[in-house]
Specification:
Elements lengths: L6 E6 L4 E6 L1 H4 L3 H17 L2 E5 L6 H12 L3 H5 L11 E4 L2 H4 L5 H9 L7 E5 L16 H29 L7 H4 L5 E7 L2 E2 H6 L6 E4 L5 E6 L5 E4 L5 E3 L6 E6 L1 H6 L9 E3 L13 E2 L2 E8 L6 E2 L17 E2 H13 L3
Parallel strand pairs: 2-3
Antiparallel strand pairs: 1-2, 3-12, 4-5, 5-6, 6-15, 7-14, 8-13, 9-12, 9-15, 10-11, 10-13, 16-17
Helix pairs in contact: 2-7, 3-7
The structure holds 2-oxoglutaric acid (AKG) and fe (ii) ion.
Length: about 350
Amino acid sequence: MAQQSTTTSAVSSATLDIPLIDFSAFLDGNRADRLSTSKAILDGFRRAGFIYLRNHGIVDVEKTFKHSATFFAKPKAEKDALAWLRTGQIRGYNAQGEEKLNNVTDPSQVIDAREYGGEDIKETLEIGREGVPGEPNKWPAGDDDFKECMVGFFSQCRGLHVELMRAIAIGFGIAENWFDDFVDAGDNVLRLLHYPEVNSNVFRSNGMQVRAGAHCDYGSITLLFQDDRGGLQVLSPNGEYVHATPIKDTIVVNSGDLLARWSNDMIKSTKHRVVEPPRRSGDDVDMIHPDRYSIAYFCVPNLDKYVDVIPGTLNASSQRKYEGVICGDYMAQKFTATFGVH
Ligand SMILES: O=C(O)CCC(=O)C(=O)O
Ligand SMILES: [Fe+2]
């Protein structure tokens, strides 16, 4: 029987190729399918630091987006009551300079936009693993459906994280379950993101303005669900940002700093950002870009694990680049560098 190709191209520019991989070939396939899918996944992380997946097995995406939109539509005071206090793990609501930039139509207000040029135009809600002593999640009051949906979605994503680490292990030619003990706690973070509607003149008046500034993710891998608005860009090896255009029913998965380190830099952690969405035909120069919603699920090894170089990533020609590190210490260092606090 002719073999059906399970890998095509999601993004193909002169400088960056991001593969689009059918993950059902891994989840339901035979040994050969699992091997070829694993190799395609690892290859994407090595070349681009990004892949797209379809048939990923996460079923509640639409429902979770709906709950996210309902949450962000709540009055500011209700959201502020859930503010992330930045004293421990990441849990809670994070408002940024979005209000001032919302609906800037009057030229005198554009000055405000310029002053806020360094700020992302976004708000987020972070949800961690349930049941961590002293680190409760912050749930909106009186909305049990929201909590149930998010806990369920968290657990679906957690399952995909385990499967993807198995694929990476197979790709590296080590035991399929090599990462299992590293990821079984599920110390991951689910982040709902809302980029409020914004007038195009905000971007025009400040060429540096973005919806989310350029960054690498810190952990092992990130599962990123985006709506159809666009604006996510990925840095190509020769320094150009390339649009990671939304593709229906797919998720974007990128490898982060800790996985790069863990793999002795065989895997890349690639910068990305969210900018003004590309124009659609018929759009006016002066227009309001509608809200954009995305959901990121940041995966990390169990925080208490010692993360040392993955076997199979060192060979005769490559020298060990990094010492081992406790995952929780590494993450805390990253957050201290970013926010000045633990
Ligand atoms: O909203 C997006 O598409 C990207 C978000 C992101 O990169 C992040 O939160 O780390
Ligand atoms: Fe990111």
